[in-house]
Design brief:
Elements: H1 2-6, H2 9-45, H3 49-84, H4 89-104, H5 106-121, H6 126-149, H7 153-177, H8 187-190, H9 194-227, H10 230-266, H11 279-302, H12 306-338, H13 343-368, H14 372-395
Amino acid sequence: IVVGNYVGDSALAAIGASGPIINLLLVLFMGVSVGASIMASQYFGAKDKKRLSHSVGTAITATFVVSIFIMVVGPLITHPIMSALQTPQDIYTMSCDYLIIILLGILGSAYYNIISGILRGLGDSVMPLIFLLVACGMNIGLDIWFVAGFKMGVAGAAWATIISQAVSGILCLVRLLLMRDVLHITWRTLWPTKALLFQLIRLGLPSGLTQAVFSLAMLVVQSLTNSFGTTIIAVSTVVMRVDGFAMMPNFTFGTATTTFTGQNIGAGRLDRVEKGTKLGLSVSVVLVALILFFGRYLMEMFTSTPEVIDTGMHMMRILAIGYIAMAVTQILSGVMRGAGDTMTPMWISLITTVVIRVPIAYGLAALMHSADALFISLLTSWVMGAVLTSIAFRMGRWKKKSIINDDVPEPADMQV
């Protein structure tokens, strides 16, 4: 909103053009986050403090190593990637500047996302929310100060983001270190152990690969989006921001069901799991109605350009039913991941993204010569994902994937 109002539609498009690349590079630690959350919730449910402490310590160290890798490699490949994506020249420099700054400050975002996932796995969903509210308030204030006050453009928005993310990451880490009644993090537990590191990779790698393939597909689609020009890039950026009001609750219900499932499986209460999967669906129906009713007002907060607003609302109507489909996918996938089955959601995501979305997007674009192809393909992939996920959930193989039965030795016996 700040960038759209104080810099313009080109700046909005610049931030949107860099989004898929940020997602692609972040998947390296997103997989770690999923694996760590599953391990934390199941060991917490089983009241296994030793394995819990060592698994969390392993995740913290792995996150640090992966983040440093991104901070070094990411800025080096930014310009070649933006050129390969045929980023329009009028937003090329702004896109690169924004992306490089975000990558240099990725450590704060990494620690917030992963440690907040661990905290939720331990049953604490309140403190991560409080820390996020603090970071969001700081981000908004710094956005206005840097962009509107100092006239720093998209670079100012990027600096505001990484500073606030660093604060949220530090707060989450401090909170985790103070939870000594649940786990105890020491220098010894921070040193990765082979058994737990392998388990973390086994659980997290499928989710990481899923996100990697999804992000690669987004890059391919972004190249198609860029071919329609700066206005459509701006429309896509605004739609994705407004669409976040409907999609984020879906993702958080998915995260909640992962934790809920992991804790109950760790405690041996599989009977509770299937009862906890219905709430998110009704919430999504309400959110879709609200988005369609208030969508135009939300878009007007980002831009005053009538063409961007009208086209954006047209795209939102195309996507509407897809939000309910995504709720089904996220919640049922969350249950399967919480149980330890991260492979099934991975394969479903690969099919819907690579086999369905990308070919349909390019095929329809060639036939229709319209940006509608971008959103029709997205809707199709969401609906097919919900169908395939529902089938996999009903088959019930996820019920036999608990890590509690894995042959992981006591921490004192682990070989480093």
